[in-house]
Amino acid sequence: MLKKILTQGIRLKKRMLWVIAIILLITTAAVASTAEPIRTIAANTWGFGVPFLKSWLPIWIFAFAGGVGSLFFKIEQIDKHFRYLLVAKPFLGVFGALSLCLILASAVEPQPPIMSAYAFIAALLSAPILQGLLAAASISRNHAAFINAVNPFKFKVVVDDKGDRDDNTKS
After folding, report:
1. Can you tell me where the transmembrane regions are (predicted)?
2. Nearest to 55 by CA among 69, 70, 67, 40
């Protein structure tokens, strides 16, 4: 079974993104409830703040590991919209996790091991969510449907799907 997961990944349906979002929300609430209010704002000698401190190095490492781990979650309907999936998913996972950790760190100060574990889980779960949002935002049919829904005039926007594809053009 481990060999199958390593070669093919864990196949998920697109509707599982809602479950992943709920799990991420629950873990965020749990981490926030275990922390105490922030006392001081730290900065290093160059004046950089929280994410660039030496104490945040484990959070960066665990966020990167979670981003790499998100490569094993395969969602066929979303993965087909990305060209460089081996770069995109870890990138989205790292910065999704760091943004959630920064939101938590601005209000409360969790313990470093808890924050590192949360960074791993947040990167693992936020990469497919952000990937789905980017895929949905880049589809021209979705743009046309939104414009047609809010359009106060009588004309409709129609999208020619065959004109957007590169494989139909002859060179």
Report:
1. 56-73, 85-108, 114-137
2. 40
Judge contact between 37 and 109, C-beta under 8 A.
yes
Q: Where are the alpha helices (DSSP H) in 47-84?
A: 57-69, 76-79
Write the pLDDT tens digit of every residue in 29-73. 887 777 666 665 666 566 666 777 777 889 999 999 999 999 888
Q: Which of 131, 102, 96, 94 is nearest to 31 (CA)?
A: 102
Supply the DSSP symbol for 73: E
10 Å CB burial of residue 107 (0-12, 13-18, 19+) is exposed
pLDDT digits (tens, 9 = 90+) for 74-124: 888 888 888 888 899 999 999 999 998 888 877 666 777 888 899 999 999
* Angstrom distances, CA of residue 163 to CA of 20, 58, 167, 168: 35, 47, 10, 8
Say what the pTM is: 0.70
